[in-house]
Write a structure and sequence with these properties.
heterodimer, A: alpha+beta, Peroxisomal Thiolase, Chain A, domain 1, 15 helices, B: 148 residues, mainly beta, OB fold (Dihydrolipoamide Acetyltransferase, E2P), 1 helix
Chain lengths: 395, 148
Amino acid sequence: MNDEYNLRGKVAIVGVGETTYYKHGQSPDPEFVLVLKAILAACEDAGISPKEIDGFCSYSNDRNDPPRLANALGIPELRYSNMQWTSGGGGAAAAVQNAAGAVVAGSANVVVAYRGLAQGQFGRFGRSGGSRPVSGPAAYTLPYGMMSAAQMYAMRTTRFMHEHGVGRGAMRAIAMACYHHAQNNPRAVMQGKTLDAETYDSSRWITEPYRLFDCCLENDGAAAMIVTRTDRAKDLAKAPALVLAAQQSGGHRSGATAENATDYVTSSFKPAVKHLYEQAGIGPTDIDVVQSYENFTGGVVMSLIEHGLCTYENADEVLTFDNLRADGGNLPLNTSGGNLAECYMHGLGLQIEAVRQVRGESCNQVDDVKVALANAGPMVAVASTALYGTEEVVG
Amino acid sequence: MSRSTDEVHLPGLRQPAAANDGLDTPFWEGTRAHELRVQRCKECELHQWGPEWMCHACNSMELEWVAVEPVGNIYSWQRPHHPVHRALSERGPYIIVLVELPHADNIRMVGNLLGDPLQEVEIGTPVSVVFEDRDGDPDFTLVQWEVT
């Protein structure tokens, strides 16, 4: 790489942590406490003092703002804070990207990327209530009964299946792979609950074309990742997972209201992927394991295609349960159980799982991982995607 | 090309209101008059939806509201079964369609497809507007669709 204006290997994830993951509404702790606990867990994992944190990055209008976190943690200097805006958890990789950028720029030395959710305290994503009039963009959808996340992202999948003639078998395989991987993951909310093809096929419709098992969970908890300079990482507790590249991904009018995005049949990753691979200096064939954000399985199919991991033509053949398994598959997917079966922590859990795979610490470890992909968002106005790798990849 | 109905399709959901910045007031006034009014740029004549303060093509801020023919083709659809709002809890499935308006630069609009909620829906099917007048505070009119 001649162009040095990239992240490639300059920054590392040195610590990851999360709270216990709860079913929605079941956290005994307030959301702010969950975030503090996750940050402490990530610091402990890194072998770094929380007092060294000097920056915070989050997304999706996380309610737990950096000044309050800095006060609670008693950090001496708050040098950097950042919020990435999009819908859903599309900013999970963007929070890492922003943290990495801050470190490279010298804006801060130890930045935490974090997300906390307590739906009992603040209300559920999957329910909509109220009787007051609604105005603005929501007025073009909500009075017609289109208000939940599943409803916001169903029609892209309908159109995708129509245009490309693929989807249902791949969607089923993705859901089954997530549940399969959750069985080995003690953090997973769905550990102990298996999913076979018959159960998937007979599950109730949430909104056609999405069945129950096509949809992410709703959970309470928090997760955090510690981002710092790669040279600093050498003194810390764990082998670093280097950030090879991270990109945000919004296309032409991808945020247009009332479903008017110019490119409608997309996971939203097309703008980013070229930059992602160029900056990392690798291609899709170099990826050993994939964490692909499942808000809904249809979006994952599009994400994998747009990341170059399969094509519109061969998606049904590539995206099979056997192929997506960590134990023997060629395209191991969502090896923690992901948003469908580990926890819906707005996708930060998928970023963390990519780090664990690079470290060799996953509960469904893939052999000899050098490069892991973790994306966030699909089908949202702005998605984000990141590549993590071992020091060997950068050389 | 359009008709009106007094039949309330999904009662109990939140009613629409014009935004307090005035951006889409002409749209909601238009539905009351049983006209489908959308934005068109005075400079480059591009239609756009949803409304914005600027033409996304030429960046002119001179936008007008024009009535377009209230017809289109089904671009995509979904059939919600799971009730996410208490007003839907005993109702059963309904159909949401995304309708493309080819005569208005392929802008798309969201509404319900009226008729049998279990009907087969096919992308590309021509549909026409049904203006659904509702009592409210204030009264309002939704833009629904039925197979032409």
